[in-house]
Amino acid sequence: MNTYNIYGDNIVECERMLVLLQKALNSHQKTVVGNPPAITIHLSCGEETFSFHFFPGFGRWDNDIIASIRNSGGVLREAPDIIITKIENNTEFPVLAIEFCSALPAGNQAWQRSGRAYSIARTNIPYLFITEIGGYELDSNRNRKAPRMPNPAIPFSFISYSKMTSHEVMITYLMNPGADQANRSLYQDVIAGDELLGYIRAKIVGQSGTSLFNSLLSKAFLFVTKLAARSNSKSLNPNQWQIVYQDLLLFRNTNRIIDESTFQRKKRITIPTTRSFSFVFQTIQNIATAVASGDLPFCVIREENVPQMIQLIRQQYPHFSNGAISSLSGNGDIAVCWINGFKPGGDDARPDRGLLPFLRMLLGDSIKVLTFVYGPAPSTMIHRLSEDPQRLARENGLWEAVISLSDLIICDSRNASIPVCQTGFMRSLPQAASQVSMPQNTRLFPVEEKTGENDVDSVIHLLFSELLKTQCFESMCNPPGGDWSGVSLQNNGTEYRWLTLPRVSATDSKRPDHIIQLPNGILISIESKDYLSHLERNIGPRLNQYCQYLFSTPPSCKRLIGSNWTDDVGRFVSPVLRYVSGSAFIETSNRDLSRVLQKANTDFAFVIDFSCQITTLKIVYRSSCPNQIRNLFRSIRIPSELNIRIQVRSVPVRHHGQSIQEDHS
What predicted TM-score, i.e. pTM, was given to this entire model? Predict the structure, then answer.
């Protein structure tokens, strides 16, 4: 028996990984066992059996794998979507980490996840960032605007860091379902195929996979050159990228990327800033060199211009200590990173967590980095940066990246009475371990410390994707940490898909956590929470309104079921659907179930009890709930391998002060 743990952001990511594993291992037989939400998947592959234990939701188990990675040199708290560990000789060790992304790879979204790649690479765990290309941005009416592509420096940063460190960290591309024929033709030869599955198999069974990794690397670099061919004049062209790449292979550094970037960086800042920052920003731009592109929020001061920059900082910030500014002195170039890392209200802008890791992956850990923070940082954060930067790093993900990966930080914000300066953090980073050290004297199969919304979603997903899969179609499952990548409907052998989902529609609505399609024209939308107290009042009609609005718009793509996607959907006629809403949460007491339906105003509710050895799913519904829904729930059959029981019943519900007598089952 080959035994593995799959730690995932949520149940959907665990399932996405399982699909890849089934293809990579050429397995056609799957068995689900266990006590939900703790389930195990057995894959039969010829004479061998592979067992994968699902642990959805990081930070909920007594064996914290993210803490283990960070303690082994991972630096940042960023967690990938998937970490697979192997159990062998009563020892657990990581074999592969994967990040999935269906979001459009453009703007700062393109480097949002670079922190995860950087941290995982430092621990020497093989890491793959599997993302999609060819998708389109949509306007408020869900009409196409333009295809969104990343800056070529983004995929190149994965290549450069893997070559500089000899760690296997790579970005691979799949085709976005909504890509048009032009993009499909242009990028077909960079799409990861058999080599991706082969590499996953190699890591699972303990083989090298070096040749497969190099094949993925070559495809990633081909994508770099294709992007460069479509870039503007303020970016490296394909020939220059080829020169940088060959130099990287020879000398294992990216010094050449700075030499080739002969264009000046010219960017404007549109938000209000201090007078001192505006002057420093403009002056540094005049003496700096862009890196790969004039559009990126960092630049390089060449060694001969460093004294001029140091003098500028001393003039504008005379209260800074000489020791702090002198840390920039010495041989070599200096990278300058500009972070407007906060929204107008002062909230943490998540994408910019990945900016400094992206810079480090592109230019390496040896170059000194000066980071300017100029956004509307809350005054409490500015005070923490001055008084206790390590505490600030523990409390805030953006500041953790800034503090951990900068050599000198200057925070010149309109919310700071005096600009703050801190120094010396990058030099004190712990050395990366040769292998992640897992906790000792702990269980090889972690125990959940606290149930939550992840468990609710896991049970619902298991119910509709496994127990009822022959009677319905799971259109969407969006647990905590999901990416709302799309919703599908099936009709006459064709699957239609809506991509780039809005959080809300133009009406007073709420995006559901689950959408289920029944073959008789009924569409179920479900809102899941950890506890009833967190469930919004009157959520049922709002779930239905979201679906009604979304499916009244044309889909983004379609395919014959089991075939390839196409963006040519033809003339689409919105299906006639009957909308049914549901809610789901963990049972905490024997409360009046009629009040449960009354609060949420849904047609049914899932009340889940995890307190016993057997998970109990109580399904309650109104008398007005369609017979098809009642029959669906009554038809559930539990295989002996699963420790779960179902209770289906109706309850009286008060409505406008009147008690409605329900039929009991």
Answer: 0.92
